[in-house]
Design goal:
The structure is a homodimer of 344-residue chains. With 344 residues, chain A is an alpha/beta fold. Chain A folds into three domains: 5-49, lambda repressor-like DNA-binding domains (434 Repressor (Amino-terminal Domain), Orthogonal Bundle), CATH 1.10.260; 63-164 and 300-327, Response regulator (Rossmann fold, 3-Layer(aba) Sandwich), CATH 3.40.50.2300; 166-298, Rossmann fold (3-Layer(aba) Sandwich). The first copy, chain A, is built from 13 helices and twelve strands. Chain A has a six-stranded parallel beta sheet with strand order 2-1-3-4-5-11, with helices on both faces. The first copy, chain A, has a six-stranded mixed beta sheet with strand order 7-6-8-9-10-12, with helices on both faces. In chain A, strand 8, helix 12 and strand 9 (276-281) form a beta-alpha-beta unit. In chain A, helix 1 packs across helix 2 and helix 11 (227-238) packs across helix 12. The termini of chain A are far apart. The interface between A and B is large, with 45 and 45 residues. Chain A binds a DNA duplex (30 and 30 nucleotides) through helix 2 and helix 4.
DNA sequence: ATGCCTCATCTAAACGTTTAGACAGAGCGT
DNA sequence: ACGCTCTGTCTAAACGTTTAGATGAGGCAT
């Protein structure tokens, strides 16, 4: 159906090689007269070189794969994914490449689909926030598929990663609560399979340590498997009498900050007068909460773009092995934090 | 690097054809003993058939392209796109296909990139809400690329489309305002390059016509190129004295409904007591506006899924020519609408 | 005229699959 | 013993490109 090189060659009375030279502007010179004659036929038949044939030969597809499994609901309700993807698309477009989406399944299923990722359909893969440990990473690395991971850092140097420094960001966030005068600062963990949650807890502890204040372990709620479980545990904590309950809380994700606000409200407490709340990520909804949530802004779009840049460098052989890139975060102060109750 | 059929064949002492039969479970039988011997080598070397070579031969890539150009900012801030895409991904995943994203550029640029869409990289294309007229559609149809358009209906039968019945939906929405007792009902148009905006205006007029009420043309604001322009025009209208200004308004998109609420507020008017507002789309933010916006819900995710189903049918040759699918909408009543002021 | 270089073009192999057709051996009825 | 059908496997062509090497025609210095 679609015209091929051969057809163009036949119609313009040259060999397919010459047509190829015209199409690609090289690598050999073509006589202007010939070029024009061939080009006319190309235009006439609306010829486009076939992508599959090309990549078969060049071993390059000009396609970047993005893997972000999810279990249920609208993927793109997940603002984290959306913004990161946005950054990825920006950069692939700049490189005249396309973006291939592998999503719409759970991680377990994604791991079964490894063939898809490593059958030469893509030149490389960006993996968004995989759980840790993640079999998929190992398999891709083993098959030597160029890979950059976002948001999940290895213990050592097992893969390339782009992320913010979660420990440091959490340290700053909790430090900010200290600076406001808080001492009974709680922590609510997030997804137990992510690496960022424990990293943020580590930053929380660091903030205490550098001030010589011991952590009150009863105020630290570990990562729970569901938000509901966290909500229940936190509610119990907030039911303590006034001088024993936390005056501030660090939720390791914005959704957890929102949860803390909701709990406070349901107990008749005011935010920030009775409880200061700080979140993490600065997704779009954080600014529209009531009160607007103080949070750590991750440059998500930039993270996506940077991961893609790294991936292209890896694909182009500009480096081998692994690289780790940590991007800057910003503490965004909004109305959900203030001095603790009873401060002058 | 990666092992090939040939390598597997060599190592297991059979021909590449036999290996192929093993890999694909057919189309010819293989002796169990042979099969097992070959399979062992395959597993050992972690062999995966090369996608490019396969699609070169089969003329099938198992990939669906999604085109949604945008001009600036985060694409995925666009909730419309996000939800539709979500539906598309759902269905391609079910079909064991992947989704290729063509976005991150403006329409003008997208039209220049036609090669990308029609060089056999994808088996078909879903085009999301293109402007009308749209050169890209013509080119793709001319090159016989399977195509389904979302949200932009042709005058006749020039392309396949999935959408809601905008005329009918608008008629119901405006009819609802009539039923509440409103008569001075304004309309604010949307993007002038979309087909849905004029369709919704048509439904607005139909609601008037079937009640024998003439449309007050001074209350109809045509589609403007910027939201600011609409805002200004609408503000002028709302500055009229009480018994001449509209008591209700139909904004052809949620963002326009939001605008109407904002204008009312800035003029010291209450919604819905002084002005009822109705929007269109029911994007996520509509429910969280103050007051929550009454609007027409489009089943966006379903639209995406349905378009993809149609595309697969077209690709599989289950039909030729074009099809039009109109999906059901729902009028979602929230707090932004009520009886007009002065009603008993 | 000869040899040599350059330039434009052509020929043909290669990329990694799928699959139609050829082929050989086994089983079976006569 | 012969021919026939099956069955399992092999050979080789084809898909549509890119590109290294061969070829041949001029131009130029000798």
């Amino acid at each position: 159906m679609a015209p091929t090189l051969k057809e163009i060659a036949r119609r313009s009375g040259v060999s397919i090689a010459t047509v190829s030279y015209v199409v690609n502007n090289g690598p050999r010179p073509v006589l202007p007269a010939t070029r024009e004659r061939v080009q006319r036929v190309i235009d006439e038949l609306n010829y486009r070189p076939n992508a599959a044939a090309r990549s078969l030969l060049k071993k390059r597809t000009n396609t970047v794969g993005v893997v972000f499994p999810y279990t249920a609901g609208d993927i793109f309700d997940n603002a984290y994914f959306s913004r990161v993807l946005s950054g990825i698309v920006d950069l692939t477009t700049v490189h005249h490449c396309s973006t291939m989406l592998f999503t719409g399944m759970a991680w377990e299923e994604a791991e079964l689909n490894i063939p898809q990722y490593s059958d030469g359909r893509c030149d490389g893969i960006v993996l968004i926030a995989p759980p840790s440990p993640c079999q998929l990473i190992g398999e891709l690395e083993a098959r030597n598929v160029p890979l950059v991971v976002i948001g999940t850092r290895p213990a050592g140097d097992e893969w390339s990663v782009v992320d913010v420094d979660n420990v440091e960001a959490a340290r700053i966030a909790v430090g900010h609560l200290f600076d406001l005068g808080h001492r009974r600062i709680g922590l609510i963990g997030g997804n137990p399979r992510s690496t960022s949650s424990p990293e943020r807890e580590q930053g929380y502890r660091k903030a205490f340590a550098e001030r010589g204040v011991p952590v009150d372990e009863t105020l630290v709620l570990p990562a729970a498997s569901t938000l509901d479980a966290s909500e229940e545990a936190w509610t119990r904590l907030m039911r303590r009498e006034r001088d024993r309950r936390p005056t501030a809380v660090f939720g390791v994700q914005d959704a957890i900050g929102e949860l803390a606000i909701r709990v406070a409200r349901s107990l008749g407490l005011r935010v920030p007068e009775d409880l200061s709340v700080i979140g993490f990520d600065d997704l779009a909804f954080a600014a529209t909460l009531d009160p607007p949530l103080t949070t750590v802004r991750q440059p998500l779009r930039h993270i996506g773009a940077e991961a893609t840049r790294l991936l292209f460098d890896r694909i182009d052989g500009k480096f081998t092995g692994h690289r780790q890139v940590l991007l800057d975060f910003v503490l965004v102060e909004r109305a959900s934090t203030s001095q603790p109750p009873g401060a002058t």
